[in-house]
Amino acid sequence: MSLSKRIALLFKAKASKALDRAEDPRETLDYSYQQQLEMLQKVRRGLADVATSRKRVQLQVQQLAGQADKLQQQAATAMSAGREDLAREALVRRSASQQQLADLAGQEESLRAEQDKLMLASQRLQAKVEAFRVQKETIKARYTAAEAQTRIGEAVSGISEEMSDVGLAMQRAEDKTAQLQARAGAIDELLASGALDDATAPGKDDIQLELERIASTSDVDEQLAALRRGLPAPGHGAALPAPSPPAAIAGTTPPGRTPGPDATSEATS
């Protein structure tokens, strides 16, 4: 497939999808109903035109009929007066009028048939338009109800785009709140442990700091004294066994003993 054909196909697909999203069946039905009303109005205008033409033909028929009667009377009067030529002329004109009357009678009959035909078509079309109007309103009501039900279902289930955006916003707000709470808790712990200085606390001078150090040192000394008092006193505990004396080495005298005469003689010899 060539590039131009692919572009044309893609454009048609996109356009069709866009039209499907933009199309509202209710608007389409209203437009179709309006078109049918316009058609009915055209039929009615045609019927009125035919009826007007037929009425005009009827007036012409009446005029020609009156003229033919008048010519008949003139021919009779001319014959009574011995004017056969005038009577002939009147009869010729009367014959022409009667021919016109016959033609107009045919036209009037044709217009009457056309009028009856348009009348029947107008009645049938009006019935169809009325039936379409009822069906249109029924479909529109059903479509509106289905659309409302769908919107409610989407809103409840969170499928709709609006509710999805609201859900995401709420989730972001909850995450931000949890992050701020964790940060506040960590700062409180650092302040309590002394790792951070409380900027809102009043400043301390060097004398106050020295007094606090002395108090802390005194507290430590008191704890050490309490620990000493808890230890057993010397001599009150169990006696430890004396270590065994080391083996005598030749030429040496254990401490606390005086060498005897045998030992002295042995050393001399």
From TrEMBL:
<feature type="region of interest" description="Disordered">
    <location>
        <begin position="228"/>
        <end position="269"/>
    </location>
</feature>
<feature type="compositionally biased region" description="Low complexity">
    <location>
        <begin position="232"/>
        <end position="269"/>
    </location>
</feature>
<comment type="similarity">
    <text>Belongs to the PspA/Vipp/IM30 family.</text>
</comment>
<dbReference type="InterPro" id="IPR007157">
    <property type="entry name" value="PspA_VIPP1"/>
</dbReference>
<protein>
    <submittedName>
        <fullName>Phage-shock protein</fullName>
    </submittedName>
</protein>
<feature type="coiled-coil region">
    <location>
        <begin position="54"/>
        <end position="81"/>
    </location>
</feature>
<dbReference type="Pfam" id="PF04012">
    <property type="entry name" value="PspA_IM30"/>
</dbReference>
<keyword id="KW-0175">Coiled coil</keyword>
